[in-house]
Design brief:
The chain is α+β, with helices and mostly antiparallel strands. It has a single domain, classed as Roll (Nuclear Transport Factor 2, Chain: A), CATH 3.10.450. Helices cover 30% and strands 45% of the residues. It has 3 helices and 5 strands, in the order ααβαββββ. It has a 5-stranded mixed beta sheet. The chain starts with a helix and ends in a 5-residue tail after the last strand.
Length: 120
């Protein structure tokens, strides 16, 4: 994957995540995706990963990711940036994050998000 392709994929992924678009995630993830966010356990199937995202989306008002840098190495894509959350009570929280993806064809097979979610 070229760096330009990786940038487009990351932009599309985080546009969908910021919109809480589970339909996009359903089409973007492999059936046997490995998904982990923060210090949570790794999930190893798409249905459970979608449910975990749904639960997370429901516990926040909104979020906005700003991507600082994207790297592509073979089938792996790494990005980092800042995410700004608005909690359900309207208060705000920001955190740095990094995401590591491994692609299997056009789909995400590994999706690991490193962020401190303890402030939420």
């Amino acid at each position: 994957m070229t760096n330009e392709q990786a940038i487009k994929l990351i932009e599309a992924l985080y546009r969908a995540v910021d919109s809480k678009d589970l339909n996009y995630l359903n089409t973007a993830l492999t059936d046997d995706v490995n998904f982990r966010i923060g210090n949570n356990n790794t999930i190893t199937d798409k249905a459970t990963a979608l449910d975990a995202n749904k639960q997370f989306f429901e516990c926040i008002g909104s979020m906005r990711h700003t991507i600082d840098k994207v790297w592509a190495v073979g089938n792996d894509i790494i990005c980092n940036g800042m995410v700004n959350y608005i909690r359900l009570d309207g208060s705000e929280h920001s955190a740095y994050f990094s995401t590591v993806l491994t692609m299997k064809g056009e789909k995400i097979a590994d999706y690991f998000v490193y962020a401190d979610l303890s402030g939420l």
